[in-house]
């Protein structure tokens, strides 16, 4: 009897084991509930964040799951748990899964939005504070950017080993700092074998500074260590932050089957040896500064990539093989050695460069390398090759082209006029990456308006109409006089259109007519603006950017605008952009400016000389400038950093008269550190010269087909002696 009871009891207890060990779901509705359960998680358990906005939360998610039973932190309904405000997430442990969260409408209070460690381990053998065998999937980080564009943070800081980051959505990082960084600064994180796949890397707007990379693997300090990271089947969509889209700074990584779509910059093998770049597609579609692959260091293999419609130059070219520094320190440029570049197809790629960056320091040309069995086709039948140093260290053979090559390359290329290349299928599509329930980027016109409002003349009728707007709109002003007594604080795209110069007349009574705030852009069209009623104060402007940092780029357009009598004080500009603010473009067309004590365009607030500047593209055309003491424009980009493309300046069919007067202090145009400029078809009457100051990069400046009547028309200075630059002056006509 007792034996029967004992056997029965044992069977009963064993039957309870699966129930007692069953994984549990923990639905949590607020952060306090989360904290109560996160410390007691067992393999297979799940924390499920309920729908809603989780504001100002700093999650620490730790635990030790198993391969078969990971511990999960997830949105109960994918995409419905919104992490906002000053929030972040730190992970530590093993076999963790994070799924379905959305980070937006906020920024991290620490150095990362998501970090695969909770703290830096004191003991190299202690893995308790980092994440291993962990998966981040179906997570969205969208515009979760620090409001100060030059405050640095990461969106994803990856430590540990064997972690998988897949099917996530990252878009619109606007402040300084790498979007995703694979960190090698702890022993636990080297030879990590991470897999980064099927992610959507959405737009990364132009930063106007170094620090705008989308993905970085390692750093220069640990670049002789191997990372063994795989980056595959990701889609990089308009990633324009700086010249390096992917910055590889470690060894033995595999970067394959990714798409780079209309992204400015290159996949850069900046540091580290023995990396494989295979099967990627670079689709430029002729977009400015779109690039391909930049090769540095030893034992790199670049094969079977497809590159099309790339316009980039110098370090941002379609295919760039760099010169190195002899006996280079770890943070400079190591010589290209034993590189294999094979089986690649390049179609309408404007520049293929060998020996890029060659100068007194970077004097070590590529060695022991092969460029074989590649196909290069250009519809123009023009050669894209630029040789900046010797190519004797590169074996060229079996390559096919449809244009003539120079004598130094002739032996390695077979020309065929009938050579045609069909575009292959992309290795991954936009629909196959990221998450299905969150929209991906689609191009749109920032001045596309949902509403048009008619405004009558009077005092503050314009301000009142603007205050009623909820989104981008157009205000149409009738003929008559308008006075704006209060500065318009613009936080959305706005068009202000009048009935024509001299017909719609604006005055304003504060230091500025418009202050650009975050999220704004403005087009002024067919108006006359006078500063006669502005206060006698310093630093006045018709339009100025916010005095606080702005992380959203904006656009400025003056079309058919007359501006006069900005002479209440000695410092009155038309457009003044302030520190830590950035314009994608400034366009002035069919406009006139007269009797102004400042400048038409004052774009020189970034004086720290760290490579920062205020605007990417500046265009003035079909306009007149008269008696403007500060000149047409002052554009400043200081420092010697080579990570950005701009500024770009275009002046075409502009008449400049006494702006400032010849012999007066100042310049009609001042371009400091500008990388691309064209000044053409313009007239300079009795005006101070154009001053060009070279500071960095390989600036290309042209002054051509202009008329002038007071010498000199221009002056050129090199702030950094001996730097590479191109300045040309053609067909400029002097007449007294």
Short characterization:
With 736 residues, the chain is mainly beta.
Strand content: 35-45%
| Rg (C-alpha, Å) | 29 Å
- Count of DSSP E strands? 68
Assembly type of the chains comes to: single chain
General form: globular
Quote the distance from N terminus to C terminus: 127 Å
Structure overview:
With 736 residues, this protein is mostly beta strands. 5% of the residues lie in helices and 42% in strands. The strands form five sheets. It has an 18-stranded parallel sheet that branches. It has a 14-stranded parallel sheet with strand order 1-2-5-8-12-15-18-21-24-27-30-33-36-39, covered by helices on one side. It is globular and about 85 Å long. The N terminus is likely disordered.
Task: Give descriptors for this structure.
736 residues; 14-stranded parallel sheet; 3 helices; 5% helix; globular
Any chance you could write out the topology, listing elements then pairs?
Elements: H1 2-21, E1 25-28, H2 31-38, E2 46-49, E3 52-55, E4 58-64, E5 71-75, E6 81-86, E7 88-94, E8 96-99, E9 102-107, E10 112-115, E11 131-132, E12 135-137, E13 140-142, E14 154-158, E15 164-166, E16 169-171, E17 180-182, E18 195-197, E19 200-201, E20 215-217, E21 230-232, E22 235-237, E23 244-249, E24 254-256, E25 259-261, E26 265-271, E27 276-278, E28 281-283, E29 290-295, E30 301-303, E31 306-308, E32 319-322, E33 340-342, E34 345-347, E35 352-356, E36 369-372, E37 375-377, E38 385-387, E39 394-397, E40 399-401, E41 413-415, E42 451-455, E43 458-459, H3 461-467, E44 473-477, E45 480-484, E46 488-490, E47 493-497, E48 504-508, E49 512-516, E50 521-530, E51 540-545, E52 554-566, E53 572-576, E54 583-589, E55 592-596, E56 601-603, E57 615-628, E58 633-636, E59 648-657, E60 669-672, E61 676-680, E62 683-685, E63 690-694, E64 700-704, E65 707-708, E66 714-718, E67 726-730, E68 733-734
Parallel strand pairs: 1-2, 2-5, 3-6, 4-7, 5-8, 6-9, 7-10, 7-11, 8-12, 9-13, 10-14, 12-15, 13-16, 14-17, 15-18, 16-19, 17-20, 18-21, 19-22, 20-23, 21-24, 22-25, 23-26, 24-27, 25-28, 26-29, 27-30, 28-31, 29-32, 30-33, 31-34, 32-35, 33-36, 34-37, 35-38, 36-39, 37-40, 40-41, 42-44, 43-45, ...
């Amino acid at each position: 009897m007792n034996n029967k009871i004992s056997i029965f009891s044992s069977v009963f207890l064993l039957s309870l084991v699966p129930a007692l060990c069953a994984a549990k779901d923990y639905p949590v509705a607020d952060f306090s509930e989360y904290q109560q359960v996160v410390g007691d998680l067992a393999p297979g358990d799940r924390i499920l964040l309920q729908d809603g906005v989780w504001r100002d939360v700093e999650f620490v998610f730790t635990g030790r799951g198993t391969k078969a039973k990971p511990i999960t932190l997830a949105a109960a309904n994918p995409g419905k748990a919104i992490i906002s405000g000053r929030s972040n997430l730190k992970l530590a442990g093993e076999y963790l899964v994070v799924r379905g969260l959305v980070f937006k409408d906020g920024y991290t209070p620490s150095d990362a939005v998501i970090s695969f460690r909770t703290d830096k381990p004191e003991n190299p053998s202690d893995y308790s504070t980092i994440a291993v065998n962990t998966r981040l999937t179906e997570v969205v980080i969208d515009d979760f950017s620090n409001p100060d564009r030059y405050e640095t943070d990461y969106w994803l800081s990856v430590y540990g080993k064997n972690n998988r980051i897949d099917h996530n959505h990252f878009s619109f990082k606007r402040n300084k700092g790498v979007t995703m960084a694979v960190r090698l600064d702890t022993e636990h994180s080297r030879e990590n074998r991470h897999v980064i796949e099927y992610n959507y890397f959405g737009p990364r707007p132009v930063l106007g500074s170094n620090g705008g990379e989308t993905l970085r693997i390692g750093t220069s300090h640990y670049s002789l260590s191997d990372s063994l990271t795989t980056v595959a089947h990701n889609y990089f969509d308009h990633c324009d932050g700086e010249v390096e889209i992917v910055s590889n700074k470690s060894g033995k990584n595999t970067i394959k089957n990714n798409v780079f779509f209309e992204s400015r910059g290159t996949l850069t093998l900046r540091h580290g040896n023995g990396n494989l770049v295979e099967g990627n597609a670079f689709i430029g579609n002729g977009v400015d500064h779109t690039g391909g692959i930049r090769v540095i260091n030893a034992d790199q293999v670049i094969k079977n990539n497809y590159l099309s419609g790339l316009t980039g130059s110098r370090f941002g070219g379609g295919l760039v093989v760099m010169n190195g520094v002899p006996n280079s320190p770890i943070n400079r440029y190591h010589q290209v050695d034993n590189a294999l570049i094979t089986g690649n197809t390049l179609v309408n790629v404007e520049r293929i460069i060998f020996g890029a960056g060659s100068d007194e320091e970077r004097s070590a040309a590529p060695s022991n390398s092969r460029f074989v069995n590649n196909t290069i086709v250009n519809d123009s039948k023009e050669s894209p090759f630029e040789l900046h140093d010797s190519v004797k260290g590169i074996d060229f053979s079996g390559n096919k082209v449809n244009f003539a090559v120079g004598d130094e390359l002739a032996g390695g290329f077979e020309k065929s006029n009938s050579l045609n290349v069909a575009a292959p299928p992309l290795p991954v599509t936009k629909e196959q990456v990221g998450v299905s329930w969150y929209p991906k980027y689609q191009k749109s016109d920032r001045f596309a308006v949902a509403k048009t409002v008619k405004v009558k003349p009077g005092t503050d009728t314009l301000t009142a109409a603007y205050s009623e707007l909820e989104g981008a709109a157009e205000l149409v002003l009738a003929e008559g006089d308008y006075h704006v007594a209060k500065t318009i604080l613009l936080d959305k795209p706005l068009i202000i259109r009048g009935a024509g110069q001299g017909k719609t007349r604006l005055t304003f009574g504060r230091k500025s007519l418009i202050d650009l705030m975050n999220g704004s852009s403005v087009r002024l069209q067919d108006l006359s603006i006078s500063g006669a009623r502005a206060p006698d104060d310093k630093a006045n402007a018709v339009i100025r950017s916010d005095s606080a940092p702005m992380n959203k780029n904006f656009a400025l357009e003056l079309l058919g605008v007359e501006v006069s009598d900005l002479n209440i004080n000695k410092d009155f500009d038309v457009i003044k952009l302030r520190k830590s603010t950035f314009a994608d473009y400034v366009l002035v067309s069919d406009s006139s400016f007269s009797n102004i004590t400042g400048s038409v365009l004052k774009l020189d607030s970034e004086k720290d000389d760290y490579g920062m500047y205020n605007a990417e593209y500046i265009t003035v055309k079909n306009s007149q400038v008269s008696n403007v003491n500060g000149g047409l424009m002052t554009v400043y980009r200081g420092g010697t950093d080579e990570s950005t493309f701009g500024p770009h300046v275009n002046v075409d069919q502009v008449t400049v008269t006494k702006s400032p007067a010849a012999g007066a202090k100042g310049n009609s145009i001042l371009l400091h550190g500008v990388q691309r400029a064209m000044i053409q078809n313009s007239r300079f009457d009795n005006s101070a010269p154009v001053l060009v100051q070279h500071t960095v990069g390989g600036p290309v400046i042209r002054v051509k087909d202009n008329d002038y009547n007071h010498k000199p028309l221009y002056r050129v200075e090199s702030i950094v002696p001996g730097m590479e630059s191109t300045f040309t002056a053609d067909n400029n006509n002097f007449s007294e």
